[in-house]
Amino acid sequence: MAKKLIDLEFVSCDLCGSERFVERYKKPDTWLWQHDYEFSVVECMNCGLVFLDPRPTNESMSQFYPHDYHENRDSKIHHERYKNQYSYLGNINNHGKMLDIGCARGDWLNFFYDKHPYWELYGCDTFSKKVNYENITFTNAPLPSCNYKSNYFDMITAWAVFEHLYEPIVYFTEVNRILKRGGSFIFLVTNSESLYGKYSDVEDIPRHTYYFSEKTLLKYAGIVGMNVEEVVYSNEIFDGRGYKNIEMLFRRMLGISYLAIKNKRINRLQSLTIKLAHFFDKLLNKINLEKNKPTGIMICHWKKT
Ligand SMILES: [Zn+2]
Question: Class of the 76-239+293-304 domain?
Answer without folding.
Answer: alpha beta
